[in-house]
Amino acid sequence: MTQEEERHADDVQQHLREVQGLLARQKVVEDLVHRQDMPRHELVETLVHKQHEAGLRAKLDELHPADIAYVLEALPLEERLYVWDLVKAERDGEILLEVSDAVRESLIETMAPEELKAAAETLDADELADLAPDLPPEVIQDVFQSLDTEGREQLRTAMSYAEDSVGALMDFDMVTVREDVSLEVVLRYLRLFDELPDHTDKLFVIDRDDHLKGILSLESLLINDPETLVADVMRREPVISFTPEDDAGEAAQAFERYDLVSAPVIDKDKRLIGRVTVAEVVDYIREESEAEILSHAGLREEEDIFASVWDSVKNRWAWLAVNLVTAFVASRVIGMFEGSIEKLVALAALMPIVAGIGGNSGNQTTTMIVRAIAMGQVEQTAMQRLLRKELGVALFNGLIWGGLLGVLSWVLYDSASLGAVMTAAMTLNLLLAACAGVLIPMLRQRLGADPALGGSVMITALTDSGGFFIFLGLATLFLL
């Protein structure tokens, strides 16, 4: 994290602490006033309440919509809704876009259809398309009817693309120019704008039929002679562009690889229909990263940390049920060797080490594979090569670290045979973990499923059951 990022994070935390402090102070003071016996008690209570509300409103008015979203996500439901009511209505739309999906749902539930319609009408078509799935159908219909013809077409277009496509990230707010005009004309044209669209680092050069001819960077616009024609300084082919159907993940990789700030989106006839900016790409990467972390732990979706017990149970139960089954299987594996454990108590102390190290190694492998899949670095044809490589790593680690644990077991329990069994079990379980770490995400990808979903749960299940079976089985064969 850079110094600038650390400073911003500290600022956001400070904003949250200030809002929490104002809420706590309001509660304490109003409780004290409520308990006092005084003339015009209700009037005094109302005045105190309004005074604290005014202070909290003033604080919220100072904050960026993204910071308000962060504050709302960090507050318990009752306080969150109270603060939400104090936000200016014209900022509702921006904030709803910034908050997480789970928190957005809790805010929308409290808003009347008229409030939702007013909030939606403050957004551009591409932003409205992002919010539309969470809005009641009747609200979307009313908003759609309130748009002009161009706005309706843009909204219909934005909502037609798949969630993980470039079209879903695309916005329509951009500046276009013709190649047969001078830079002076372009400069005069730009001065007509109150402000340029966010992240404008280039202008798109089109013909009369909206075909993309090239790009004119702001740098070229500013450093060249104003009498120069756009055609003489614009960049023609190759121009990095995307189609709406392109994969959003691949577009994100292109933005990272070529340090893009914005890029044009064209249709199959090379007509310019929109652009993608680094802001949408960063949001997409963040959302994908959060989804990967959640799915790796077996969570179906993002969860509001202050959600009701029932909502949290619904989000978590599926993989917990899977984990329960696998834990039961692991317990039955141990049960098969109860007699061995009774005869050699050291087995009970050592077997969790074998399972634990195997689980950790498997999770390392599957994390690397899932990351490579997400970045487009791994094809299905590479499965055998990756498997051989990970098996080599597991064999090396098993012999080195398993050998070390074997020596320690020999010293602790005065049994060279136990040490050898420990080394062999560790090595075999690491080989099992390597196989699982490669095969689980890649087979899930081949079947069209999320390669990260539940990976940690499945790896742990295999290495626990497999580790217990391998270790106790070897001990039964060679020690008893």
What does this structure look like?
This protein is mostly helical. It has three domains: 3-163, MgtE N-terminal domain-like (MgtE N-terminal fold); 176-296, CBS-domain, CATH 3.10.580; 309-478, Tetracycline Repressor, domain 2 (Orthogonal Bundle), CATH 1.10.357.20. It is built from 22 helices and five strands. It has helices at residues 3-35, 41-62, 65-73, 77-86, 92-98, 101-108, 113-120, 125-131, 137-146, 149-159, 166-169, 183-190, 218-223, 230-233, 248-258, 278-296, 309-336, 338-343, 346-374, 383-413, 416-446, 455-478; strands at 176-177, 202-206, 212-217, 262-266, 272-277. The strands form two sheets. A three-stranded mixed beta sheet has the order 1-2-3. A hairpin with a 5-residue loop joins strand 2 (202-206) and strand 3. Helix 1 (3-35) packs antiparallel against helix 2, helix 7 crosses helix 9 (137-146) and helix 19 runs parallel beside helix 21.
